[in-house]
Amino acid sequence: MAIVSKYSTAKIETLVNQLLDVLHAENATTELSLMCLGNAISHVVNSSVPTAQRDTIVKHFNQALVDSIASKNK
User: Fold this and answer.
1) pLDDT at 2 (0 to 100)
2) Which residue from 16, 54, 55, 9 is spatially nearest to 33, judged by alpha carbons?
3) What is the pLDDT of residues 18-32, one digit of tens each?
4) pLDDT-derived band of residue 38, with 50, 70 and 90 as boundaries?
5) DSSP H helical segments within 9-74, as ranges?
6) Rounded CA gap, 65 and 63, in Å?
7) What is the maximal distance between C-alpha atoms in the chain?
8) What is the average pLDDT score of the chain?
9) pLDDT tier, 73 (very low <50, low <70, confident <90, very high otherwise)
10) What is the Cα–Cα distance from 32 to 36, expressed in whole angstroms?
11) How far apart are CA 1 and CA 22, in angstroms?
12) Are 23 and 33 in contact (CB under 8 A)?
């Protein structure tokens, strides 16, 4: 069953493209891009998610990332 997001595809694509534009403008390598995005994720989790929920949120995020990579390899 597909998950329905409360955010529009257009809004998500716009934000992702803006993030990627910044990384591209800075000529960020793959390694630097992943480090920066990882730091941004850590900041969002630590500043916006209650401590008691962080492990669960991170586990779900990690699984979604694994699933998205796996689906691209099929």
Assistant:
1) 57
2) 16
3) 999 999 999 999 999
4) very high
5) 9-25, 30-48, 51-72
6) 5
7) 39
8) 93
9) confident
10) 6
11) 34
12) yes
CA 50 to CA 67: how far, in whole Å? 25
Both tokens of residue 8? 């529009």
d(CA 39, CA 28): 14
The dihedral through the CA atoms of 16, 18, 23, 25 has a sign that is positive
Written as one letter, the residue type at 40 is A
Residue with tokens 């689906």: 71
Q: What is the pTM of this model?
A: 0.82
Separation of alpha carbons 24 and 2, rounded Å: 31
Q: Measured between alpha carbons, how far is 40 from 7 in angstroms, rounded to an integer?
A: 20
Q: Which tokens in the block code for residue 6? A: 């409360």
| pLDDT of 3 above 70 | no
